[in-house]
Amino acid sequence: MSFNDIIGQKIAVKLLQNSLKHGRVPHSYLFIGPRGVGKRLAAINLAKALNCDGASEIPCDSCVCCKKIDASIHPDVKYIYPTGPSLSITIDNIRELRTQISFKTYEGKKKVYIIVEAENMTIQAANCLLKTLEEPPENSVLILTSTDSHLLLRTIVSRCQAVPFNRIELHRIESFLVEHHGVDKSLAHFIANLSQGSLGEALELKDDAQIPLVKGKLMDMLSRLKNEDVLTLVGEFNKEVFNNDNGERGRDVSEYRNKLHMSLDMLTTCFRDITILKQAGEQVPLINLDIREDLKQLENKFSLSQIEEFLNTITDMKMYVRNNVSPQLILERLFLDIQGNVDA
Asked: Of 171, 178, 164, nearest to 193 (Cα)?
């Protein structure tokens, strides 16, 4: 994988290649952007370029050094990930970094440390890292990746060269899924929209066999909502989609929450498409091309003001997911609120 394989990040790649070309590589970078948009891939390629046996701003991908970095076995290129129950980067992680980075390189030209999701550093770890950023060893480069610079200490941000990574254009993700992974065009269109500009998210979604099931069950719940008991509908959803009578008992709660968040995103696309059908008919492309007829049947079931309320409720429910509220309660609250609006 080379810089050319990083999709939709032309400005970020050009900035890094110019630094390499002119020999003005700073001791520390901060790659900022959403998850799944190429930050880690860019960091790996920067590490390869700094250590490649060739003399170019583009790594050759064929020398022993490049191959070792691609395989994550190069002794001079290390990764630090959030770990443990709290998914954090601890002071012990950074202390080990400080010790190792002070040594001479084993076989490469530069020691490169890639701190993934640096916003997950504890305050003690962040303060410890600050000491290294203030007095970096000559033969080292630190690369921090983060979804939001505001989640980091300002003193850390000020000592790094920021490289912004943007959400990837949806048509690029759609084309990538079709051309490189053989995904059906209508499904690729849906996944690209659901990914919200994250290729990493899209690649995970393409392998999720439950997407048609979740979408079908959501549409079924919307069509039956006015006349049936919400608790019964939510129970059916849990049983059919998650193969569980209770949304939390007997399964990985974090996995359930991730699936729930995906379901809320899918429900948002459905209401968006119903709004499009009500206001523009066939003039604007739908996200859910495969269930166009089902959406048309719901077109007259909800008013625009009701849909606006539904979308606001879904936004609130996403916040509850992030705040670790019981997934079972979130689903029940969501559909009770929607049912209340329908009956109003």
From this structure: 171
DSSP 132-153: HHHS--TTEEEEEEES-GGGS-
Predicted TM-score (pTM) of this structure: 0.86
Q: Sign of the CA dihedral 321, 325, 329, 333?
A: negative
Averaged confidence pLDDT in the chain: 90
Structural domains in the chain plus CATH codes = 3-164 (3.40.50.300), 208-343 (1.20.272.10)
Percent of the chain surpassing pLDDT 90: 68
Share of the chain above pLDDT 70, in %: 95
Terminal Cα distance for the chain, rounded: 55
Nearest C-alpha neighbor of 152 from the set 172, 173, 123:
123
Q: Which amino acid is at 102?
A: S
| pLDDT at residue 241 is higher than 90 | no
Say if CB 149 and CB 157 are below 8 A apart. Answer: yes
Residue showing tokens 């995103």 = 265
CB environment 70-96: b (16+ within 10 A), e (fewer): beeebebbbebebeeeeeebbbebbee
Nearest to 194 by CA among 261, 277, 290: 261
Name the residue among 147, 150, 69 with its Cα closest to residue 112: 69
Provide the pLDDT for residue 250: 43
DSSP string, 277-325: HHHHTTSS--S-GGGHHHHHHHTTTS-HHHHHHHHHHHHHHHHHHHTT-
